[in-house]
Fold this sequence. Notes:
Distance between the termini: 78 Å
Structural class: mainly alpha
Largest sheet: none
Amino acid sequence: MMNLKAVTRKTSRFIFIILASLWIMFEEWVWDTIMAVMVKIGRLKIINLLENYLARQNPYLLLSLFLFPFLIMIPAKVYGVYLVAEGKILRGILIFVLAKSIITAFIARLFFVSRDKLMQIKNFAVSYYWLKEKKDWLYGELNKLPAWQTARKSVAELKRFIKNKVRTRKQSSGFVTKIRKEK
């Protein structure tokens, strides 16, 4: 029979994994959307020139650039929470999500451009690999859960359904379809 400490530890771990899985699903959805947008933005000539310039800079300068987005994001997120507390729920959530999305997109692109340089900083590299190891562990634990597997399949099916609906709608409202209907 398990003692109270073991039961508490297992229960806490289970709750943590469930909460983390919900957060990860949200983050993946946001991440996929952000990356699609950032790929398109990265094709712009001015962005490409800026990225090439940044890639030639000192690793410590690049590391310091990561502070600015956080300094902007924190007040924006606090303001979003404040608006929710004041009863302006939709506006507060919108500001919170926009701040998170835009800043995350900026940070992701900055990291993509400066990763090799940042890895030259020993403490950064150690922290990066430590966090990556923890994230990989968490994903491993999540992938073992039948509920997580079912949720992932359901989300994938929902994405396919939405894509098919959008594709069908685009095809049925296209210029060629309208011409064919007129004949």
